[in-house]
Amino acid sequence: MRGNAALRDPLSLTLEPGTVLGIVGPNGVGKSSLLGAIAQSGVASFGSATFGGEELVSARARRRAALVSLMAQDHGAPGELRVRELVGVGALASRRPDPSRAIDAALMRAGIPHLADRRYGALSGGERQLVQLARVLAQDTPIVVLDEPTSALDLAHQRTVEQIMSGLGARGRIVLAAIHDLSLALNTCTHLLLLDPGGASHSGTPHEVLGPDRVFAAYGVRTTIHTTPQGRRILAADD
Ligand SMILES: Nc1ncnc2c1ncn2[C@@H]1O[C@H](COP(=O)(O)OP(=O)(O)OP(=O)(O)O)[C@@H](O)[C@H]1O
User: Fold this and answer.
1) Cβ(28) to ligand 1 under 6 A?
2) Which CATH architecture has domain 20-237?
3) Do the record's keywords include Ribosomal protein (predicted)?
4) C-beta of 12 in contact with ligand 1 (< 6 A)
5) Ligand 1 contact via 32 beta carbon (within 6 Å)
């Protein structure tokens, strides 16, 4: 619970390694609060989250940083930092053995090696989002929490993030991502959790969760899932 918002029904999730869980639902329904609870950043009250029997809430900050990384929705960071330094915060937080290499690899994977020496405060909104993603990649944790990771990105960079999320899953990471783009959620996630404004939640495969009746109940919009000849799924409003 945060502010006056609370889920009506208790929520319990067990996520296997390799799960890419998309958390969807209307504005203000509690997606960021849930992610913040799991990553332990500023949430008023919450149950518990364990990883391999280890309680995340009571873990020391250093240990938690080795288990969970968070890319928050607001990409705030000191503007005078160079990109390389900021990405290095991730590598240092989880004590990567070769931080310099971890930074280079993360910058490359996020497609921004050319930004390495720029000051964070002088970057565009989308560039900042990619830097925050690189910071998380440099942290290299078994649980990766992403709050709307593509909200500021162009089409090509959205594709990069999709591939990064799928790649993390393929490498046995657990990814939790709040996502507004329901087509992205359909194409990238192995599982979805839909938080409903009434306080209910629904989890399952993307197709189950984003069926037209569920989407209408949550968003009040009539939709259909279309499939392109290449097999890509697009969820679009009916009118
Ligand atoms: N720092 C805060 N203090 C008090 N209440 C907050 C705070 N941040 C968010 N809330 C409230 O908690 C509820 C859930 O907000 P949250 O940010 O988790 O929703 P969300 O589903 O991530 O929304 P969005 O899709 O708009 O990002 C909202 O009613 C919001 O007004």
Assistant:
1) yes
2) 3-Layer(aba) Sandwich (3.40)
3) no
4) no
5) yes
- Strands ordered across the beta sheet of 174-178: 68-71, 143-147, 174-178, 20-24, 191-195, 201-204
Q: What phi, psi does 21 have (nearest 5°)?
A: -95, 120
pLDDT score of 1: 42
Q: With the CA atoms of 159, 164, 169 and 175 taken in that order, what torsion angle do they form, in degrees rounded to the nearest 10?
A: -90
Out of 31, 146, 147, mutate this one to test ligand 1's pocket (max ligand atoms within 8 Å of CB): namely: 31
Q: In angstroms, what is the span from residue 26 Cα to ligand 1's centroid? A: 11
Domain residues of the chain, as ranges?
A: 20-237
pLDDT in tens, 219-231: 999 999 999 999 9
CA–centroid distance, 38 to ligand 1, in Å, is: 15
d(CA 185, ligand 1 centre) in Å? 20
pLDDT in tens, 156-203: 999 999 999 999 999 999 999 999 999 999 999 999 999 998 888 999
Ligand 1 centroid – CA 28 distance (Å) = 5
Question: What count of other Cβ atoms lies within 10 Å of the Cβ of residue 67?
Answer: 18
For 5-51, the pLDDT digits (tens) are 556 667 788 889 999 999 999 999 989 988 988 887 555 456 777 88
ipTM of the complex: 0.93
